[in-house]
Design brief:
globular; 19% strand; 15 strands; 351 residues; alpha/beta; 9-stranded mixed beta sheet
């Protein structure tokens, strides 16, 4: 099958996974994912226990928001459930690619069995990952895309699909608009890959609709940076009808609109979720968001690492199920698959 045709099959399968509801909170498994290699949907079932106390190192870009705190929870809770050791590092932000490389090397120096990687920059980690592979260290990519074949397995959302799904929701919302509606998109950090993919998804989702993409403004996902980006964009596009972008963008958008003196209705939405989005969706301040259940992605990453270490059958490339979340359906969605429990504090080791 040609590459372009295979991508269409995968995208179709992922869009079919979009659902307004998820399993009950007590049901960790199974979890629907797209097997990218086979081009089909499968129900993932995790292991009960590891055969030994493997040592797994984990690299995160940061833990500045509830999204990555939820990933931390998924890693830590699954490591505890399987009976393996986890050592967790966070680099401090998407500008810290060099620090993440140093942390990767720290993992190697610890003599770990596997490394789970939420990559800041695949290119920046390429040399270290090749060296790790040569040393026989199992490597699993999580959350952020890894396009190469150095990793033994990977699970991450296709953000073009997530962004397209949210954009289609917006296109439907404005289908009867008499005039074109300007959309400002805030994808996230340029060079990350997933941010650029989200912009392509927006273009796909609004095609042949009343919505037009006015601009895409890239930047780190820190609140202060996103607030500044939105404020600056509003000076140029004061007739904007939609602000769409990262979860952090959606959190700060209302403040930016107020500070710009824009008191008319502007629709706010995001193509992925963090915990701060929940109350905003319930209040109606954010019209829609998309969740790919990052806690479950983290659980599966740990499970994949253990399966590979124990020479068990495993998937090589997975994309998680995604759900569009609105005020109408948020109370029916199992948010334990997306966020850490209330009161959870980040942990950096599981013994």
């Amino acid at each position: 099958m040609k590459r372009t045709n295979m991508k269409k099959v995968i995208l179709s399968g992922l869009l079919a996974l979009l659902s307004p509801t998820l399993s009950h909170a007590t049901d960790t498994w199974p979890f629907d994912v797209a097997d990218v290699v086979a081009g089909k949907t499968v129900s993932y079932q995790g292991l009960d226990k590891a055969s030994k106390k493997w040592h797994i190192c984990v690299l995160f870009p940061h833990m500045k928001d509830s999204y990555w705190v939820g990933v931390d929870y998924g890693i830590a809770d699954q490591a505890k459930a399987l009976g393996v050791k986890a050592t967790i590092f966070q680099a401090g932000g998407y500008t810290e690619a060099a620090k993440q490389v140093a942390q990767y090397n720290d993992c190697v120096a610890l003599g770990v069995d596997a490394i789970i990687i939420g990559a800041i920059s695949e290119a920046g980690l390429a040399k270290s990952m090749a060296e790790g592979k040569a040393k026989g260290i199992v490597q699993v990519g999580v959350i952020n895309p890894l396009q190469g074949d150095v990793a033994d397995a990977k699970i991450y959302a296709n953000y073009d699909v997530a962004a397209a799904a949210g954009a289609r929701f917006l296109a439907e919302k404005f289908k009867d608009s008499a005039d074109p509606v300007k959309l400002l998109h805030f994808p996230g950090p340029q060079g990350s890959g997933w941010a650029e993919a989200s912009t392509e998804g927006v273009k796909l989702g609004i095609k042949d609709s009343k919505i037009e993409l006015a601009d895409a403004k890239y930047g780190d996902t820190g609140k202060s940076i996103q607030l500044q980006l939105v404020e600056d964009a509003l000076q140029t596009y004061d007739d904007v009808g939609i602000i769409y972008g990262t979860a952090v963008t959606a959190e700060v958008a209302k403040q930016a609109l107020q500070e710009a003196g824009i008191d008319r209705d502007v629709t706010i939405a995001s193509y992925y979720s963090n915990e701060g989005i929940v109350d905003l969706v319930k209040k109606g301040d954010v019209s829609a968001t998309v969740t790919e259940s990052p806690v479950m992605e983290a659980r599966i990453a740990v499970d994949l690492a253990v399966r590979i270490l124990e020479k068990k059958e495993h998937y090589k490339h997975l994309n998680p199920a995604m759900s569009i979340v609105t005020k109408d359906n948020i109370d029916t969605i199992d948010l334990t698959r997306s966020f850490a429990p209330a009161g959870w504090k980040p942990v950096y080791s599981v013994d």
